Amino acid sequence: MDPRRVRQDFPVFLHRGDPHPLVYLDSAATSQKPIQVIEAEARFYREWNANVRRGIYRLAYEATQRYEEARAKIAGFIGAKPDEVIFTRGTTEALNLAAFCLGETRIHWGDRILITEMEHHANLLPWQVLAQRKGAELLAVGIDSEGRLDLEDFRKKLNAKTKVVALAHVSNVLGTINPVAEIAEAAHRIGAIVVVDAAQSVPHMPLNVAELGCDILAFSGHKMLGPTGIGVLWAKSALLEEFPPFLVGGEMIREVWIERATWADPPAKFEAGTPPIAQAIGLAAAVDYLQALGMSAVFSHGQRLTGLALEGLLRRDFVEIYGPKSQEERGALVAFNFKGIHPHDVATLLDQEGVCIRAGHHCAQPLHRRLGIPASCRASFYVYNTEEEVEIFLSALDRVWGVMG
Amino acid sequence: MSPYEEIILDHWKNPRNKGRLPHPDLVGVEVNPLCGDAVRLELSVADGKVKEVRFDGQGCAISQAAASLLTELIQGRSLEELRKMSEKELLSALGEVIETRKNCALLPLRALRRALAPKA
Predict the structure, then answer these.
(1) What residues of B are in contact with residue A400 (Cβ under 8 Å)?
(2) B3-116 sits in which CATH class?
(3) In the beta sheet, which residues pair with residue B32?
(4) How far apart are CA A91 and CA A97, in angstroms?
(5) Which residues of chain A are within 8 Å of residue B1 when distances are taken between CB atoms?
């Protein structure tokens, strides 16, 4: 995989080059989009636009076919069956759906829900609200000094009352890759449902839901070269059968009377209203693009770049790094701080050289409180980033230290 | 590489009037929960004018430098005049503040307005 060739497919790098070439190191927030994805979405509007699932005419039939082909492709990408893939607005909506439905069927007063200290608010707040709604207990598994999950703490907190274990596959701040299969095995032994926030893993590594061993998995299109406004909830068929609908309205019913209704089968049961049709087709094009690169190559490219950044950061004694010190335990991002300097100052100065990094709490306030910092800087890498960009980033850091240190 | 004017770096590295007053007449605190920036302004007042001023706080260079500079700008001025102090006055005293960070620069002014607000 040659990132210099990959870059040529991304129009943003052509449009934004003044006064410095764009060094985009914030793909963990959202990825850039290749022309193939932009064109696929535009082509739908140009050639196939109609609402899905209800038109009798040929145009509507074709739109529905494209939409369902997109579902099948995206399902295949994670080793799932098409009927187990629900389109949502993103990871956040998918996790809200999972929490709401599990709350209706599995969580009762006095039950326990386990999350971790490293969760993004999207995989914390739905469970917090659910615990309050049902009188359940929400506990967070701790982390060790290098930001790995404390598995001893997990085993201690996993008890017979635990009905749900929800965790990130890859932390969006620490970068830690969590041992989901091991956790799922322990959780399943006591009959708990395992929910995985895969927003930071599906875009970057080969992933198969059966091998991962979870019951529910959520991810977003826009972090994997796809459009905004679309995400995926994958859940085992048995759960989708058991769940009540989350949103109700058009396109998700079998029969409706004034005082009662029956529901369509999954996945339609969970897709009330007109779904993100063009976005689904755009996301399928993103899957095509990633599969052409090969997910193993995508993963090793991310590992190589993040490893270089990590090494460079570790060599600078004015930098503090969060998360594991070895790249084998990490995904394609690294969070850090300059000693005594606010991350917003670092990000503003880097922006002057065209280097885009994230600075803030990354929607993980409890984790930052646990680390004892108000905020952090984060650099994240993807298929269009080059080794040269890592060098530009590192030398820009030295100039920031020169100004502020 | 600096978009930070020399005056910002100077006030950030050498803050003026930093600390607390033993018996402040007026206190104003402002916090930006998004980034953790916090500024506390303390004033002592004589004849309707600012006699002494201190600031305390933590956060980014722009918010802390702006707080330091603000203490110099308001020293000796009447409270009545300061109630009308404009954002423009502080921003132009800081030199150039880039658009994305104006909110940081104005945090201390909001703390001042809080200190000067009529008590309920």
Answers:
(1) 1
(2) alpha beta
(3) B37
(4) 10
(5) 349, 352-353, 396, 399-400, 403
Contact B61 A374 (CB under 8 A): no
Interface test with B, best of A342, A355, A373 (most B CBs within 10 A): A342
Q: Which fold has domain A38-291?
A: Aspartate Aminotransferase; domain 2 (3.40.640)
- Work out the minimum CA distance from B37 to partner chain A, whole angstroms: 9
Q: Which of A101, A214, A356, A363 is catalytic?
A: A363
Q: What pLDDT digit, counting tens, does each position of A282-299 carry?
A: 999 999 999 999 999 999
Q: Is A101 a catalytic residue?
A: no
Torsions phi, psi for B25 (to 5 deg): -85, -35
List of chain A residues whose C-beta atoms are within 8 Å of the C-beta of residue B101:
344, 348
Q: Say yes or no to pLDDT of A269 above 60.
A: yes
A to B CB pairs, distance under 8 Å: 49
- A261 contact partners, CB below 8 Å, separation of at least 6: A248, A253, A254, A255
Residue found by looking up tokens 């201190």 in the block: B54
Mark yes or no for CB contact B98/A400 under 8 Å: no
Q: Note whether A3-31+294-404 and A38-291 share their fold.
A: no
- Cα A289 to Cα A283: distance, rounded to the nearest angstrom: 10
A189/A165 Cα distance (integer angstroms): 12
User: How close is the nearest chain B Cα to the Cα of A303, in Å?
Assistant: 29
Q: Are the Cβ atoms of A341 and B61 closer than 8 angstroms?
A: yes
Tokens of A28: 């963990």
- If you write DSSP's letter for every residue of chain B in order, what string do you get? ---S-HHHHHHHHS-SSBS--SS-SEEEEEEETTTTEEEEEEEEEETTEEEEEEEEEES-HHHHHHHHHHHHHHTT-BHHHHHT--HHHHHHHT----GGGHHHHHHHHHHHHHHHSPP-
Domain at A3-31+294-404, CATH homologous superfamily: Aspartate Aminotransferase, domain 1 (3.90.1150.10)
Distance from CA of A310 to the nearest CA of B (A): 23
Q: For chain A, say whether B38 makes contact (Cβ under 8 Å).
A: no
What are the tens digits of pLDDT across the range B58-83? 999 999 999 999 999 999 999 999 99
CB contact under 8 A, B1 and A396: yes
Domain boundaries, chain A: 3-31+294-404, 38-291
A176 and A324 Cβ atoms separated by less than 8 Å:
yes
pTM check: above 0.80: yes
pLDDT of residue A19: 79
Both structure tokens of A219: 């991810």
ipTM of the complex: 0.84
